[in-house]
Amino acid sequence: MTSRPAITHRLRTYLRSRLTGDRGSTSLQLVIIFPAVLALIFGGVQTALYFYARNVAIAAAQEGARAAGAQYGSASAGTAAASDFIARAGGADALPAASVSGNRSGTTATVTVRGRSLSLVPGYSGINITQSASVPVERITR
C-alpha cells in the first residue's frame, strides 16, 4: 500500500507539469493573432478597392472633360463620354452608384464623377468618391 505523502507528491508533480507546460500555447497564440492578421488583409484589400474606384472616377472625369472641351463638344457629350468610360472600366463593379454631371462655359469645360468604392464589409456601403476634371474649351483663333 502506498503512503499518503507519496500520493500527494505524485499528484503535486502531475499538476505542476500540467499547469506549467507549454501545451496549447500555440493554439492560443493563433486565436489571438489570426483575427488581427485577417483584419490587416481585409483592410489592405478595402484600401485597394477605394483607390481603384478613385482612379476610375478621375479617369472618367478626364475623358468626359476632353470630350466636352473639344471644339464642337458639349456638356452632354462630356457626360456621355464619362459614363461610357465607367461602363468600359467595369460599370457598377468598378464604381457603384456612379453619377456624372458636366458643365461647359465659353472658356472651360468641367465634368464631375461621383460614386462609391466597393466594400468587403456587409452593411457598409463604401467610401464616397467625388472627382472633377476641367479643361479649356478648344476654339479656333486667327
* Count of discrete structural domains: 1
- DSSP helix fraction: 40-55%
Order of helices and strands: HHHEEE
Report the sheet-strand fraction.
15-25%
Low-pLDDT residue intervals, each spanning 5 or more residues: none
Write down the Rg: 31 Å
> Shape from CA axes?
rod-shaped
- Tell me the strand order in the biggest sheet: 1-2-3
What's the total helix number?
Answer: 3
- By helix and strand content, what is the structural category? alpha+beta
Number of E-state strands: 3
Major pleated sheet: 3 strands, antiparallel
Notes on the protein architecture:
The protein is α+β, with helices and mostly antiparallel strands and 142 residues long. The protein has one domain. It is 53% helix and 17% strand. The chain has three helices and three strands. The protein has a three-stranded antiparallel sheet with strand order 1-2-3. Helix 2 runs antiparallel to helix 3. The protein starts with a helix and ends in a 6-residue tail after the last strand. 26% of the residues are buried.
Task: Please give the structural blueprint.
Elements lengths: L3 H16 L5 H44 L6 H15 L9 E6 L3 E9 L11 E9 L6
Antiparallel strand pairs: 1-2, 2-3
Helix pairs in contact: 2-3
